[in-house]
Every structure is written in structure tokens, then in C-alpha cells.
What does this fold into?
Amino acid sequence: VQLVESGGGVVQPGRSLRLSCAASGFSFTTYAMHWVRQAPDKGLEWVAVTSSDGSNRFYADFVKGRFTISRDNSKNTLYLQMNSLRLEDTAVYYCARDFYLPPPIIVNYYFDYWGQGTLVTVSS
Amino acid sequence: DIQMTQSPSSLPASVGDRVTITCRASRFIRNDLGWYQQKPGKAPQRLIYAASSLQSGVPSRFRGSGYGTEFTLTISSLQPEDFATYYCLQHNSYPPTFGQGTKLEIK
It folds into this structure.
């Protein structure tokens, strides 16, 4: 299993950024996928999840209406579109695979594999 | 949201020590709890799922226990590579929430 994030960088408040997570080594279309973030020297925060087929998406309250999670199963890639960025969005963003449980479970919210992370810095 | 309270926040210890980290949930979460290890500059690594099940490849000196609202992670004999920060995660109730972390430091 390999998850490789990209797209991080320095961005001004109010601007946008799109993160990507390229997945390999497993059947991407089988798994729900998450974004989890970690502000500098802080703890872990769950951000968003998409179900395996992309039809269900859920967000933490602090990003609702600003961030959009999506996936392209033909490219084995997960995305996070981040709009209206704020200073407090500065963090390392990790993509993480959901621990699979068979239907009717859609999302388990336990993360079994993580990427190495990509740093997003929001600064004027 | 369910609050996860981890203690201690910092734990000085020596190689060979037995250490215990505690995580308390603000509401009943069955055994829907996991433990992760994170080293500086690295992604979290899974250790324990379902409160007490060891993930494949994790050394047997790591042990998780608990049910309901109180959980523990015990490392039976600390090795040099175990000095890291540990997080608990509850995934019983949406949204999933982490403890604030316990930094295991060399005494």
C-alpha cells in the first residue's frame, strides 16, 4: 500500500489550493478515503471522507462549505479542493485509507494506512 | 463530539521500562478505539485496532486494553525505537476524534 500526497505549498489567506493523493498497491475502488491534518506541533484532526464510489462525502465542521473531497477511481487518486483558506488551515495534510469492513458499513473511520503528508502554509 | 482525554501528555521513561498511556472517552464507545505511533516528521503508524487487536507487524510488547470509556496502551519493555508520540482515536461516533497525544521521552 502506498499513498503519496502532493500539491501543498504557501498560499495567501482567502486563496485556493488543491491537494492530490496517488494510491497504489491496493484496490482503490474498494476503500473509503480520508484527509486528516496536523497543525505545526499540534495533534491530529480528521478533515473529510469520501466513500469508495464517491457518492457519500462528509466533512468536519471547520471546513464545511470551504473544502471539497473527491476521487477519480479511474486514476486511483484522491483530491482535496481547499477554498477560502484561513491562517488556521496551516497544517500537514495526510491522506489515509479507511479500514475496510463489508457492507452495509460504508465508512469505518479507522485509518489503517497513511501517506507521508503534504504541508500547506497559509500566510500573508 | 466525543472528547478523548489522553494522559499523561508527556512521559519520561528509560529503555526497558514498562509504561502505560490512558485514554478516556467522554461517552461510551464500545471498543471502537485505535492507537497510533508518530515519530517526528513522519506519518502516524497504526498499532492497535478494536482497542486490543495488534496490527500485523507490530511487536508483541505493545498491548491495548479497555472497553466503554477507559482504554490503555501498555508497552512492556521500552525499546529505543519506541520513543515517539502516541495518539488514541475513537471511531464509534461521528466525527472521529483523537486524543491530544502522549510524548514518550527518554529520561
